[in-house]
Structure formats: structure tokens, C-alpha cells
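INFO worker-7 received task bundle
INFO bundle size: 2
INFO processing item 0
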Amino acid sequence: MPRIPAKKTSEAGLFLKLAYRIAGRRYGAVPEPMAIAAHHAGLLRASTVHELMVERASKKLPPNVRELAVYRVATRIGCSWCVDFGTMLQKHDGLDIERLKKIDDYATSPAFTRQERLAIAYADAMSADRVTVTDEQVAELEREFGRDGVVELTYQIALENSRARMNSALGIVDQGFTSGDACRVPLP
């Protein structure tokens, strides 16, 4: 149970009711982090606009690379909500979610490409207690993805660190997006 309860639809104003309706249609249920952030209307609006803009702008990296790096952050931080939601997003993007079970062995597993290994290792380096990214690591990523790709990857990893740490601090746990218990979102 989260440390702060979700804001109920009955307590919501017009904007929040609309946001809940859109989220419910898009994901099958209102994401709990959104319903908890709803206690601060200004930050909820800012976060919603930010997330939509980041989603639209993140087109330089292959989706599998971006999503695996973000998923890795969620597992490193220990955010079960992020793992649950991220798995659903990957499934809906047509990505192979079975290999997520092997992510701890990414460096040697044939389930991951060279590009994916580089991105996951970068997520590890950025998500440690102390950032351990090296010049060589960034140079290799730049050769592989270009400067705009490195900036996108860095931004996505940093953003997921923020999401995962906030969710963990507020006690937000998995919501059943992958099991279908909370959300019955049809595959595209």
C-alpha cells in the first residue's frame, strides 16, 4: 500500500477527471503514480506535459535499446511498479519480454544485441549509488548511436531513475499491468 493514498475521482476537479479518463483509456487503469501525484495539481500537470514531450522527442534510439535501458534502471532501483509498467509497454511495442528474465546476465546472454548490452551497461553505470560512467563508455555509445542518441539514452535513464526513486520512496508497488489484474489493455 502506498504511503500516500491515490486521489479519488470523486475528489478530482475537471482537469484531473479528464486526465484520469485519458490514462484509463490508454493504459486500462489510472497509473497509481499519477493518482498520487494528483495531490499536487501543478506538479501533475508539469509531469504529464513533460512525459508526453519526452515520448514524442525520443525517436533517435531503437525502441528496444531505449526500453531495455529504462527497464534495467527499474530493476536496479527496485521499483516493482516501474518493472510492471515497463514490461507492459515493451509487450505492447512488440518487444520480446521473455528475455527480460535474463537481464542480470545481459553481458554474456545471447538474448541481447551489442547495442542493447552497451545501453544496459550505461544504465547500470548511471544507476549505481555513485555514477560510474567513463569517458570511454560515452565515446563508445557515441560511435554506436551518435551524439543525439547518447543524449536521448542519458536523458531516458536519468528520467527513469527519478521515476523509480519517487515511486519507491512513496511505497508505490506493481499494479498488475503485466498480469492483467489491474489493466486489461488489448495488444495493438
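INFO item 0 finished
INFO processing item 1
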Amino acid sequence: MRTMLDIARARYTTKHYDAEKPLEDEKLEALLEVLRLAPSSVNIQPWHFYVIKSEAARAALMPAVKDFNIERVREAAAVIVFAVERGISSDAYLEKLLAQEFADGRYGAGAPVEGLDKLRRTAVRAYCGGPDAGERWASEQAHIALGCLLMAAEGMGVDTTTLGGLYFEKIDEIFGIARANRKSVVAVALGYRAADDANAARPKSRFPREAVTTVL
């Protein structure tokens, strides 16, 4: 069984995918569950994941792909677009979130639910009170989920590429994301590396630990 350190050492950004090797449904389902279970500040879960898998969806996405990512999007088995919810500070969203926590048995008898709910509402409205209405904060939470996905995929033997090189406003128009009161912020390609993917053979390059770590 691979350790988390083995996974961190092995994971890399795939540059070329094998278009003839589809991603197994059970692995995709497992990775979507990893995303659903990802941690977020005050359990806010401000995300929605759009899975681009069909040829029609992929063709619709292509006009929003910057030139250096065209091959990855075209050849990967699937692309997941991460979008953030824009209404996370609303009473409706916060009440829905609390109701889900009750349904999942998060609060036992005597739990100080009212105080916890008030604390979360105070935090969320503080984060969402600026000029960006909390979009940066929500995006940071989505990137936590992205990190979980990247590590989980490597652990399952699935290759990935984080895709920042997309025209996200165009994606929001194409897939009706803006109309759903959401905003896409990042995407990831999933699949299996091509045999000639040179990046797979390159040593991982990182600053030494002493350059990035201070133990106090």
C-alpha cells in the first residue's frame, strides 16, 4: 500500500494523455466522492463540480481553452471544472447547510447548535462583506478540494493536470454556470499519460526543506 509520502513524491503534472485509454467509471465516481468530502472553512462547501466527459461537452468547452492546453483537454479522459457558489452568505444557503448537517447527524442532543450557527454566519458574512462578495474566499476553499483530488488521483493511478489556462468567463456562459449564480475558478484534466509523456521521466524539482520550512 502506497504511503502518502510515496504519492507526493510520484505525482506530477501530465503533459500528454493517451486518448485511447478511458477513465474507469468507478475511479471517476471515487474521485467525485473525494471532492464531495473535501474540507472547507466552517464547512461552507461553496462549490459545484462540472464533469466534462461526453464528446459534445468537450467540443463545447474547446473554444474556452487557451492554445497551450488544447491537447490536454482534447486527449484527457475527462475534465472537471470547479465552480464556486455566489450566494453562500444568504440565509437560504446557510439554512440549507445547517439542515444537511442535522440530516447527517452532525449534532447530538444538547449540542450548542444556535451558537455554532451564529458563529458560522458571522464568519461567512465577514468573509463575504468585501468588494468581491467572498469570491476569493470561496475560490480558496475550492483549491483545497483541488489539492485533495490531485493526491487522491495519484493514489488511484490516475494522472492529472491542473488547468488554469482557460477562459473562465466563457466557460460560465457555455455551460450556464453564471445563470446558476456560480463562477468557475479552476479545472483539472484526468486520464492516463501517453507513453511519450516526457514529464513523467523528469525528476521532481522543489526547493530544499530548509529553504521552505522553519521549525519554531
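INFO item 1 finished
INFO post-check item 1: The CA atoms of residues 1 and 49 lie 29 Å apart.
INFO post-check item 1: The chain has two domains: 4-87+133-198, 89-127.
INFO worker-7 idle
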